[in-house]
Amino acid sequence: MVLPALVLILVFSYFPMYGVIIAFQDYNVFKGYGDSPWVGFKHFIDFFQSPELPMVMRNTLVISFLKLAIGFPAPIILAILLNEVRNMFFKRIVQTVSYLPYFLSWVIVANFAIAMLSTDNGSINMLLESMRLTDEPIPFMSIPDYFWTILVTTNVWKEIGFGSIVYLAAISSIDPSLYESAAIDGASRFRMTYLITLPCILPVVMIFSILAIGNLLNAGFEDLLLLGVNPALQDVSDVIDTYVYRMGIRLNRYSFATAVGLFKAVVSVVLLTTANYLARKTGNSLW
């Protein structure tokens, strides 16, 4: 049963890794891997000396940290809150409504967000004007100061419901006798959450935190590409993934783009290994 998944990973994840060799070449599509001239670390040096490097790394780290700081605890909080709901009908409604955005493509979500924030009959601007908080529509999608807030809020809205499924499953596996004993001792629901629920789901939280730290340089791609389509937002929306796309696909600098992608992959492996080593000290690790 596992064999098809292993074949899929080998074909689409491991076999293509041979292509990273072009990061050390001036790759020419007509000459191929074998005849393209070898240049060593030239493209890595060009990336580290690029004037765009500070901007790209700043955007990548800031957006990643914002998504981690806000998006990571959000499904945990939602799962805990849903666990406390006793009205099953209301609970199922909330679960369904929160899960649905996850199954929408980023094309739909981005266009939905852009339509809501539009200056032309956008619901947010109409609400602000009706409340007399602004005299004229605000071009949210053209002002860099608003972009990170819009991006992180959209990501949380899309991911929070599906992420809470795992934590709800972990909470449901907790022995009910623990809560019963705590209730007999006079513990409040908040105290039960703090002393029972959180410690019991800590292993799951640690595993997801390790993966999140390993993906720290994965600030996103589809969401940034679609929400940051306005050229005025490039200074705050250009991250490593969109930078690789721009250099490799648009400008045909295949070797340079591969070098940048390889740099990101190596840093991600180092972060993942370090996070796993530190987590092992607490008795929770991936390997």
Automatic annotation (TrEMBL):
Q: Which residues cross the membrane?
A: 5-24, 61-85, 97-117, 146-171, 192-217, 254-279
Alphabetical GO CC annotations of the entry are: plasma membrane
Which GO BP annotation is one of this protein's? Answer: transmembrane transport
One Pfam family of this chain: BPD_transp_1
Provide this UniProt record's keywords sorted from A to Z.
Answer: Membrane, Transmembrane, Transmembrane helix, Transport
The source's superkingdom equals Bacteria
UniProt name for this protein = ABC transporter permease subunit
> Where does the record place the ABC transmembrane type-1 domain?
57-275
SUPFAM superfamilies named in the record: MetI-like
Q: Where in the cell does this protein reside? A: Cell membrane; Membrane
Membrane-topology annotation of the record: Multi-pass membrane protein
What's the family? Belongs to the binding-protein-dependent transport system permease family.
